[in-house]
């Protein structure tokens, strides 16, 4: 019952990925699998989309080609309707989407050259080939949002949805927790920072004297696990907001081949080499060194957080207010101090937490605030944190008391799916839809799209 129907599956995923457009070879020779209006659906794109699901490590359903073909038909209908309704999708939005996808692939495969080798095309050819597909996707998404934007769910509807589930089919949920944290990252002493700067200036001298290469030094000394094995290499775009602004501005002031002096970002100290630049896109290498934090700085941070904890315990400051005011965790400034799960909610399972956090929570009860405790984040950076265990559910079968928000979301998605299905049925007769006979025989669910034409 939780499996996405065709209408709701469109809400859950984008039809044809950029990688399907960028394959160096088609799985089969191009053949028209269907036509909607004046838009064709190629069988090779359907097959490449299925292959792309496998490449991402996801489970491929037995009827994957039929599901994707059905999604394609619906997507084409909504795209054409969006054009009729003049829904706004700008070229800047399309270009930004293409750039984001390209950066994702570059980060995945390590370099622009690797992406181009795999695709058998240049980055610009990949973008050109995918541009129309991305534009269609964005138009279809805009139409989908318009169709369901006013769909709401009432408590009565939520209960009715829940009551329809056979009691022996109710899902079993493991224990979930709501956990907040206030984090301080102690700063290293000035003497240690100066020592690191001196070491990085020595790296630059070695490169200038051609005693070694930037790439070799990065592999040997860089403390950035995300680029160390690639010799410190990253692909940058000037407009990308995820990069530290100091790092980004320093990189784009460099000429090709030039190496920056040591600069300090929120991650530590860097020297940066501009490898290649093309407008707002660049390939750089960097070496990151993180000045070590001593026990003295850790103890200072513990004393500061102990004072913050006392204010929270005395109710002179709420936990959220304390996190906003004192936490060095950037997420706390914008989304609040509570850890979010894969679905974006503040309920997480134990497997999503670090080992030190799990050990700490084993001794806590809901409502408890931990003492300030030292830890290391995923990047190996030392910090001190206070942890708040707001709630902990026991393993249980789905029920309205413990899982109302989840049940309401399921019910809302089903209601949206029905609205989408109704929209499709009312619009079918206004569009020419043709399904290749061979595809139609393999996918009987597609017959409903051609029976009214």
Written overview of the protein:
- The strands form 4 sheets. A 4-stranded antiparallel sheet has the order 5-8-7-6, sandwiched between helices. It has a 3-stranded antiparallel sheet with strand order 2-1-12. Strands 4-10-9 form a 3-stranded antiparallel sheet, with helices on both faces.
- The protein has helices at residues 6-12, 18-21, 43-55, 64-84, 91-109, 112-119, 123-148, 155-163, 190-208, 214-221, 245-252, 295-313, 319-326, 330-334, 355-361, 400-427, 437-442, 447-450; strands spanning 32-36, 39-42, 172-173, 177-184, 233-237, 263-264, 269-278, 281-289, 373-376, 382-392, 396-397, 433-435.
- The chain is 48% helix and 14% strand.
- The protein has 18 helices and 12 strands.
- Helix 1 packs across helix 4 (64-84), helix 1 (6-12) packs across helix 16 and helix 5 (91-109) crosses helix 7 (123-148).
- It has 453 residues and is an alpha+beta fold.
- Strand 7 and strand 8 form a beta hairpin.
- It folds into 3 domains: 6-156 and 401-450, Porin chaperone SurA, peptide-binding domain (Triger factor/SurA peptide-binding fold), CATH 1.10.4030; 173-186 and 294-396, Roll (Chitinase A, domain 3); 190-289, Chitinase A, domain 3, CATH 3.10.50.40.
